[in-house]
Each structure stands twice: as C-alpha cells, then as structure tokens.
Amino acid sequence: MNALPDFPSSDGVGHASVIHDGPLSKPCTWEKRKDPKQPSQAQWFMKGHFSLHSSWETLVASLKADCPLCWTCWRAIRSSQIASPSDERVADFQATITYAHFDIGDDFFNLWVRLEGTGLKATRIRLNITKTSREIFEDIGRENPIPAQHTAQSAAEVANRWIGVCDKNHPSCLARATPPPDAKMPTRLLDLGTSDSTTWRIIETQQERLPYVALSHRWTENTPTLLQKNYDAYCDSQPDSILPQNYRDMLDICRAIPIRYIWIDSLCIIQDDNGADFRHEAPIMLDVYRYAFLTLMILWEFSDSTVFRHCRPSTVARPRPQSYKRSALTETGRDSLFTYLKNLVYPEAPVASQDSVSNAQKYAFVRIENTGSYNFDVNNAPINKRAWVLRERCLSRRILCLGNEELYWECEGDSSGPLIASETSPSGIPHMSRREGLGSLTCSDNGEYWNLLVEQYTACHLTFEEDRLVAFSGIARAVAKSTGDTYLAGIWLETWMQDLLWVPDRVREQPARVKPTTMGTQSMRLPSWSWLSFSGSIIPGLLVGNGEGPRISLTEPNSFKSDRFDCLALLSQTTVTPPDTEPYVSFHQAILQVRCLLIPVELTRITAMHMLPPSFRMTQNIEFNSTGLDCLNLMPCGEKEDDHAVFILSFSKPLNEQSRYFFMPLFLRKDKYQEAIKFGPDDKEGHEIIVEETVTNGERQFIRVGRWQEDMTLPSQLGPLISNTIVQQGIGATVSDMSKDITELERTFDFKMHEYAVRHASSMINFPRNCMSQLDQEGVNDKDENGISADENGQFGENLRGKCQEEKEQMMVDCVKCSDLPYFSNAQWSSISLVYNLGLDTTGDDLLDAFSDRYEVERALFMRDANTGRSKGYGFVVFNSSEGAAITKKYLDNTEINGRRVKVAYALERPRKQSNILDIETGMSSSGGYSQQGDRLAGEVPG
C-alpha cells in the first residue's frame, strides 16, 4: 500500500504543518487540526494534491500486484465485469488524491481520488482505508471466503445462509411467506424436477399455491421465448441444454437451494400474440414478485457466458470488520503513536518507480465511502437502468444479485432497517440503511422513499413510451393497498399539492419508441400536471421543496388544520375517462378540478422563451400604499441578489409568447425545525405552479408548465399580497353572495379562505424591505438596532456594502401591517381544469375531436416518424366537402387546440420539403389539394 502519501514523523507533533520527504521522494504537506466534534482528538490533513498514478501502465502494474485500492479504482471505470485493463487502455491516465486525512481516533485514511484520461468521464471516488498485516487480512478472508469462481452449488450455499437469517430474524420478510387468499399465482411456471434433474417443462398452475423463484433479467438476442408454435412442446420435458448458459445457471441454483419451480417472463408469457397474454399477466406481476420465495437478479449478462465471474479473491476490496482492533496503540506515549502511524504508510522497502505503485506485501481494508462497491456493482448495473426491473426489485421481498465477483443480497431486514449485504460484508454493508422496497414505501413516513423511487424510476429506460404508466402500476397498487391512499396518473391525491411541484432534471437522450397499434395500445393523453408527461428524469416536489407538503383528506378536505401549512387551493374533483377505465394502467384523460387563485404573470427582458433562466425577481416596486397591481411582473436575475428576494422558476415545457400565464398558489409552509432559517418563527414561504391558459371548444382550461418557489430564507413576498387580494375582492365574504355554480365543498372552502385572509391581512408580518420603494415612516421602522437606515427607495447605501452578508440579511426585513401592502387587482378566483398537453404525443383522435365541430370530417391523421413512431408535429384532416375545409380553415387557423397554437392551411400549401408525405396508416400520398376522398387541411403543431 505504498499508494498513500507520506505521513509526518514524530518531529511534526505540535506543529501546524510539516513537510516530509518519504522514500519515494514525494514531498507532502500535512496539517494537524482538532476534530470539531471531539476537540480532544486530532486529525492530520493533507494539503494540496498527490499523484497516485500518472500513467495507465503503472496502474496496470499495481493491479498485477493485487492492490485492493487500485482494483477499486479500476472497477469504478471499467466498461463491464468482464473487461480487461489491457483491452481498455486509457491514454493520458491520471489518478490523483485530491483530499486526504488520517483520523487518529477511528484509525483510517479518508481519500478522495479523481480518475481521468482521454475518453474517460472524470470519476471521483471516496475511500476509507485501514492498513493492516497480512495475517489479519488473511484471517478475515478465511472468515468470509470468496471463491475464484462460484458454481451453482456454492452460490446456493451463500444464498441459504442469508435465507436462514431472513427466515429467523426478519418478520417483514417472513410475513410474505404466507400470501393472503386473494394473492394471485403466476399462470405458468417452469417445473425443474428433482435436484439431480437436467430437464424442465412448463406447467399451468391453476392457481395452486407452490413455492417458486422469480427471475429478474435483461433480454438479449439469445433470450429464449414461449411462442404459440412451441407451447405444446415446452409443456413436455425439455433438456437444459437448449437454454443459454445464464438460464441454465439459474435452474441449477434453484435445484441446489432446493426450489423446484421458477418463473421466467420470457418462458411463462406467450410472446407472439400481439401482447394479449402480456395484458392478461401484467396485473398479476405485483403478486408474482411480491410473494416469490426468492428473486434471482442477473446484474450483468454477456451473450451466452455464465453469470459466475472469474476473480482474484485478494483483489476484492474488504471493508474493515467491526471486530478489528489495532494492537499498536496499547502502548503509551506520543512517540509510540507516531511509530504506529509511520508503519501504516511507510513501505518496508522502497519501490523502484516514479509512481506510487503498491507493494504486494502490504495489506489494507478498503471501502468505498457510504455504499462500498454496491453502487458500482449493483445500482449502476445495466439491469437497474430499466424501468420494468425497478418495479421487480422494489416488489421482491428478497433478492440474490449475481454477475459480479461477489454475490449481493437485499431484503426488508428487521426493525433496524433493510439488510443489504455482500460476501465481504455478510451482516450488512456499512452505512447502507435504505432500500426502496415495499417495507419502506408503506411505512408511516413513506413520502421520502416514494419520492426517491419516482426520481430513480424517471431516470430509467423503457422500450415503449406507453409503458411508463403500466410499468409503475404494480408498485402503486401495492402502496395504495397498504396505505389506503388514492393514486392517479403518477401522484397521490392526498398529497396532490406537493406532487404537482416536480421539476425536470434532464431530457432522455434516447426517447422511448411509440408502441405499434398492433400491440393493442390505447390512446392516452398524459396530464400536464403529472411527471408522466415529461420525457426524462425529474426531481419530485418533496425533494425540491426540502420537506413535506400538506396531507389532506379527500373526503373532508375542509377539515384540514395545521400549524405549518396554509392551504391556498382545493382539489374539488377528479375526472378520468372513460369512467370504467383502470387508471393504474390506462386512461384516455385525467383531469384535476382545482379551486384556486390565478395571478397573472408577465416575464420581461427574456431573450429566448425556450431557454429561460431559473432565477427571477419582481420588477415592480412594492409600495406601502395598498394599491392594486395589474399582474406579477418578473425579470431574470442572479441566483443571489443583494437588493431583491429571488423566485426560483422551473419550466417543464417551452413557453409561447402569445399565451397567457398565471401563478397558481398552492400552499405556504413554515419551517419545521427548531432552528428556523427565516427571520421569525411564523414566517412562511410559498409553493406554487405556473399554468398556461388554453381554450378548447369554447371551454377555458389550463396546462401546468412549471413550478416556482420563494426564497426559503426570507418571509413570503406573495403570501401577504394573496391575502390582501382575497379580502379586496370579497372572495368568500358571505356564503349567500357566492355563485350558485359552485359546489358546497367549494363554497365552504371559499368561506374558510376569506376567514384566513382577514386574519392574515390584519396582522403584523415580516416583509422583505428591499421590495418596498416608498415606505410609510409611521408604519415601517427603517432603522435597525444599530441605527442604520435605508434610503428613500428602501435600499441600503454604499456605506453598507462592506458589511458581511449576514448583517445585510438581517436588515432586509421589516415588520409591517399586511393590509398596507398591495394586492392583485386582476387576479381571478375560479374553479379550473388542469388538463393534458397537446404536443409530440398528439394523435389523430385529437385532431378529429378539434376539427369536427362544424363540418363532417372523414378522417384525421397525425404524422409519425417511421423509426421512432413519435409524432412529427403536424397532421392532416380530410373533410367531405370543400366548403367544410374552407370555413374550418378560416375559424381555426392560429387558434389553440388542447393547449397548443395551430397553423391551418390547405395541404397543397405546405413547404416543399414536407409536400410529399406518405400516409403511414394507408400508404397513400398526402401531397395536398383536392382528392377523390375530399378536401384536406394540414394542421401544424409546433413541438
């Protein structure tokens, strides 16, 4: 382990920093500091960077010497588990220790290593290293041995040890050993015979309860499938040899455990019937994995090779066992301590190299910080990038993970948390306490786990975009059944406010394909308010908002009371069409009816509507005179502004300059923690979404286009203005004066909102002073306790610029009467419909609905890409008469249809490059003009 930088000798004791030249003539600067958590303890910190390797050749030499540190680095950058460093040479390779410290109390080095080179994505890993002797290292290896290559028998022995612990000590895992009466068995299983059998056959279970193993894997070109033509043959005994090697490995593991039956999707679901059998089996998947005796997961698959990897056991990084005790520190005295430290890092003999190549005679316990090798070997495995597999992993009660140098295990564990283990850490990988399994998702504080799962799921890949809802349905069903909550299109209606606050993370590089109509797909309009409508990964609202949102009963929403939350909107109704649909897996439309305030918003000084910055501030000067504001006017600004509070806006779709946009407040939230980050304990920040107004068939509807959030370190700017608006407009002032067009639920909510607004408007509140321009000196104290005053514009003069940021922040807020602040004169209190987007997933049915109001439409077609199946953004409508085409063109050109502005022209007028477009459904030319079928209009929808 010469790969560590030199440690200062005993001469350095008591000095702030020392420079020592080690045997490799590598000067290294260290600094001694006190541990802030334990002032009596000291730590040594390396200053500057240290070159671990400056070439690929020295790394390879260190790998040949079985250095576990360098093997850990190699495993972090290799392309696969069977890759060889000689085949994947990285030019200009550098491995650099960018940070290091030695913790005397805990006896380990903490290293941050940066790996970089030509064509290599810069990788940073954090390692904990404890040097030890050969004897101790080998003793630990004998306690938890790793074979040079596993066999089915040895893998089953490891699995049975974990199964024994699980059956004895894990109540949550054991509870699923006896499924409830309504649990479904798989329709088919593979019968593997006795433990010495070499044949298998498919059986139909007839719902007879049988113990079975489930397989989770990726499909490859060699994946065997159950077809209509081989069904009868596969129901008779078939030799194992007709299956690829990885399937044979799974069958042999089952027989060695022993378990007689296994469920494999490719061999238990008919694959060539246009999806009919899959649609029958899909609802059962929840129970298939949930109640399997064990799930085998093949993390890495390579053609027809075995899942059992060759490895050099001494190169597998082993974390320091909890039982490990150092003996050198039993001596007393300062010199003996530093003798021990020197022996940790100094080699017994110098290595003749200009790089820090490890000595094969040195041993160390090496652990990747926080997760061990689990992230590289399991979480980052190709299989766990697939959306369908995430569902299987989450639903399974216990999993044996195969395909790496060592085996891994996951299960629900005991009351202390899930068990995530490996062969080198059979009792649990240190610091691994979270598993997004059903146990975590159904506990009392399941919100955090659900949001983390959604974040992970949206980053996964799907072959077909239409499967995004159904692939998540099994997990949603299980959580709903356990918690009693109501699920709709990706969100929980009890926490609908927080679930609407998601923000895009990144667009998917390779969009999923559209499923062919021959597979029985149904047209779904994904709602704009759900993360389902965004083709990419998202960050859920709870994670964005740094905490939870209000949880509201669906049956009695007006009974909600909280000291932390002020709810500003009501979910009054949900609509799913068709009414008899199964919303977990499919629907045509899903609409939220919300009672809320709509604040007109205008974004100014924008250079490109499709590339909006995240930070905005108000352009109006908020004056202390109770005046009305026409709208909320915002302009881009920096992330931090000395003179203005900042709003953080995140958009999920490009904006249209001709459209109208509104802020829709959802709730105000107060700090949860005892040490509040705001100025006063009652200060709150607002959480809202941004909506775009659309008109469809004369009906006003709204599309969610983004979310916004106020600065959490400041009191709310909009909260007081919202209360003043409700009071000024008389919203909910008296029950008898209210519109008869609203429901009793909405009427009661309006009245409660008025009561809240009156209380708030009459109270003294904290308000960011830098948003006020002409302050009433009687109503606002412009001096802080040090006598520093604001200028006539409510801002601080240049004489304050030198003061620290903390002092400036303390002087940004004044206590004012809420009702003396402005209100929004053009804000609207209404019940609105949050609907779907019309965009790249538009169908011909959408055009047919929009264009058939006045004249009979023969057919409508939306063009799709021949390779991906995704919409191109334009389509054709065929009328029965030229009169119908002409009048429809006149009335619908440059209007909005389902939230998108369309341009309508005769097909003959289309640009040259799009003038000869094939009708992909009928194969007919759509070059425009008149035809025997009628008159055509080309409708273009900007993507």
From TrEMBL:
Q: Which residues form the RRM domain?
A: 831-909
* Annotated region described as Disordered, given as residue ranges: 918-943
Matching entries from Pfam families are given as:
HET, RRM_1
> Which UniProt keywords are present, listed alphabetically?
RNA-binding
Q: Which SMART domains match?
A: RRM (SM00360)
GO MF annotations, alphabetized: RNA binding
| Entries under InterPro entries matching the protein | HET (IPR010730), Nucleotide-bd_a/b_plait_sf (IPR012677), RBD_domain_sf (IPR035979), RRM_dom (IPR000504)
Q: Where is the composition biased (Low complexity)?
A: 923-934
Please identify the protein, giving its name as recorded: RRM domain-containing protein
Tell me what organism the protein belongs to.
Fusarium mexicanum
Q: What is the lineage of its organism?
A: Eukaryota, Fungi, Dikarya, Ascomycota, Pezizomycotina
